[in-house]
């Protein structure tokens, strides 16, 4: 286990919707928000067990380990639960980029569509079919 989460909050105590809870992922040092994704019980348990983020893909309907294809993993340093117990904050050490579009953060555009984030890799080179 990556950190002292004992006793871990029971997933059933969290206010999930259809068995999923929102997870906000933030860089531990810079506090930059990297991404948001959903976790089910298995994803949270795998994350705690391995220290690497795991999420539930709503589109593929399956568990996925962040960085499994790209190598751009998120090493979990701390997990916090919000006051309403309906979302999680994961403080991580990001290896490479968090966004599958090649940016450090999934929040790389402003409302006008202007790119304001840092591109850290070329997706075509990482996600070869």
Provide a brief overview of the structure.
With 129 residues, the protein is mainly β. It has a single domain (18-124), classed as Phosphoribosyl-AMP cyclohydrolase (Ubiquitin-like (UB roll), Roll), CATH 3.10.20.810. The protein is built from two helices and six strands; from the N terminus they run E-E-H-E-E-E-E-H.
Structure notes:
The chain is mainly beta and 129 residues long. It has one domain: Phosphoribosyl-AMP cyclohydrolase (Ubiquitin-like (UB roll)). Strands 2-1-6-5 form a four-stranded mixed sheet, with helices on one face. A hairpin with a 5-residue loop joins strand 5 and strand 6. The mean pLDDT is 91.
Poorly predicted segments: none
Major sheet details: 4 strands, mixed
Helicity range: 10-25%
CATH class: Alpha Beta
User: What is the third-level CATH name, the topology?
Assistant: Ubiquitin-like (UB roll)
Task: Tell me the distance between the termini.
Answer: 34 Å
Alpha-carbon Rg, integer:
15 Å
Assign the CATH architecture: Roll
Q: Specify the overall morphology.
A: globular
Strand content: 25-35%
**Count of helices?**
2
| β-strand number | 6
Helices and strands: which structural class? mainly beta
The total domain count is: 1
Average per-residue pLDDT, rounded, comes to: 91
Main sheet: strand order = 2-1-6-5
H-E order: EEHEEEEH
CATH level 4 superfamily = Phosphoribosyl-AMP cyclohydrolase
EC number: 3.5.4.19
Organism: Methanosarcina barkeri (strain Fusaro / DSM 804)
Cofactor: Mg(2+); Zn(2+)
Pfam families: PRA-CH
């Amino acid at each position: 286990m990556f950190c002292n989460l004992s006793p871990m909050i029971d997933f059933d105590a969290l206010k999930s919707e259809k068995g999923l809870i929102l997870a906000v992922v933030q860089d531990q040092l810079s506090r930059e928000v990297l991404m948001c994704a959903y976790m089910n019980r298995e994803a949270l348990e795998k994350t705690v067990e391995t220290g690497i983020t795991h999420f539930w893909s709503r589109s593929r309907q399956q568990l996925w380990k962040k960085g499994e294809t790209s190598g751009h993993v998120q090493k979990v340093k701390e997990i916090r639960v919000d006051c309403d117990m309906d979302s999680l904050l994961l403080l991580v050490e990001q290896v490479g980029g968090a966004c599958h579009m090649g940016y450090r953060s999934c929040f790389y555009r402003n409302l006008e569509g202007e790119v304001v984030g840092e591109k850290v890799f070329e997706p075509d080179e990482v996600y070869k079919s």
